[in-house]
Design a protein that fits this description.
Distance between the termini: 57 Å
Radius of gyration: 18 Å
Structural class: mainly alpha
Strand order of the largest sheet: 1-2
Number of helices: 5
CATH topology: Hypothetical Protein Ta1238, Chain: A
Mean pLDDT: 92
Number of strands: 2
CATH superfamily: Cobalamin adenosyltransferase-like
Number of domains: 1
Helix content: 55-70%
Strand content: under 5%
CATH class: Mainly Alpha
Length: about 190
């Protein structure tokens, strides 16, 4: 199989059910989820510490789900096949957020991105995920989409925030609260 096809040389690309311009909102949306997946792969590749094994496993699951998001976003005609991203994936993310958040210390202010290398990359994932979500919102104003992809990305950015803090905590590196932030988070109920 050849990697190059030459079919995109005139500025169009194939999606599920047809062809669109390479700068189409649909391509921007699934392209940004692909970019997110690449940064996530980089973060996973640095998670050699066994303290992070469960995180690594969950993040690898998310990599597959990001491909599912991209596949649903690339679907030009929803009647061609069922969507892959479903509400149960969003529910599971919420369960994981609660689980990982329970092991981190309380915060009341925004945190500066940073700490360990893994945590820093997970914060990059969080911000790229927010951009992917914005691209999906733009696409949804133009055409029908799988609404669960938007919900999934919204919850996923919260997940990345939580696991970035978890990675720091497990390595004994404290989060640095943004000094000029008002109190924006409630303390966890114990």
């Amino acid at each position: 199989m050849r990697i190059y096809t030459r079919t995109g040389d005139k500025g169009q690309t194939g999606v599920i059910g047809g062809r669109v311009d390479k700068d189409d909102a649909r391509v921007e949306a699934y392209g940004t989820t692909d970019e997110l997946n690449c940064f996530l792969g980089q973060a996973i590749s640095l998670m050699q510490n066994e303290k992070l094994a469960d995180l690594r496993d969950d993040l690898q699951t998310i990599q597959h789900e990001l491909f599912d998001c991209g596949s649903d976003l690339a679907l030009l005609k929803p009647e061609l096949r069922p969507y892959k991203v479903t509400a149960d994936l969003v529910d599971r993310l919420e369960t994981w957020i609660d689980k990982y958040d329970a092991e981190t210390p309380d915060i009341t202010r925004f945190c500066l991105p940073g700490g360990t290398t893994v945590s820093s990359l997970l914060h990059v994932c969080r911000t790229v995920c927010r951009r992917a979500e914005r691209r999906v919102v733009t696409l949804s104003k133009q055409t029908e989409i799988n609404e669960e992809v938007r919900r999934y990305l919204n919850r996923l950015s919260d997940f990345f925030f939580t696991v970035a803090r978890t990675a720091n905590h497990r390595e004994g590196v404290p989060d640095v609260e943004y000094a000029r932030s008002p109190e924006v988070f409630r303390r966890k109920s114990k």
